[in-house]
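Input.
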Amino acid sequence: MAESSSYLTATADAYDAVADIYADFVRGSLDRLPLDRAIVAVFAELVRGGEPLPVVEAGCGPGYMTAHLRDLGLDAFGIDLSPALVDIARRDFPALRFEVGSMGAFDVGDGELGGLLSWYSLIHIPPPELPPYFAEFRRVLASGGHLLFGFFESEGDPVVQFDHKVTPAYRWPIDDLADMARKEGFVEVARMLREPLEDERFRRGHLLMRAV
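Output.
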């Protein structure tokens, strides 16, 4: 998948500009999110039950979720568009591998991965551009491999852009994302919707899919 779209450069530049602030904001965020931790733990258990293959966090930011996957027993590495965030991830988690790159064009062979986590990284992709990302996810995952992605759910509305604090982002109906993934070779394993906490604006959606 060739990628030269301006939104990729804009997203990388926006996160580079606030990398330290963003890293401080998300650091430790899982500690107060038991439901989020639970579905990530299920993802990790399913991946551990398959072939012993690496797992990628696509859009890893400062690396805290990649480290969490490692703590759950996975051979995890991360990629992100933002060089500044990758630098922070490498500094904070020197035992892990982090690379600058796009989740729409992995430097990975077909079927080489056992799992893929996209934790609120699909949210910045304009809706017409999104289906090829699922095709790329399916390409790099082995048959039977698992995909987990987290996103902001649209709460009954169609896909809608919102004023994300870093760069424009989109809220999606959970059924639309599940259908998009199915068309690219995934079957749904589970879904979880979580209502926003007091300091959150939107419902959170989580989809766990298996590559067929």
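The first helix runs from residue 6 to 17.
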